[in-house]
Amino acid sequence: MSKAIFTLDATVRTDLGKGASRRLRREDKLPGIIYGGEEAPVSITLDHNKVNNAADFEAFYSHVLTLNVDGKAVEVLVKDMQRHAFKPRILHVDFQRVIAGQELHTNVPLHFINEDKSAAIKAGGIAEHHVNEIEITCLPKDLPEFIEVDIANVEMDSTLHLSDLTLPAGITSVELGKDDETHDLAVVTVKPAPKAADAEEGDEEAASEE
Question: Which residue range or ranges hold the Large ribosomal subunit protein bL25 L25 domain (predicted)?
Answer without folding.
Answer: 8-95
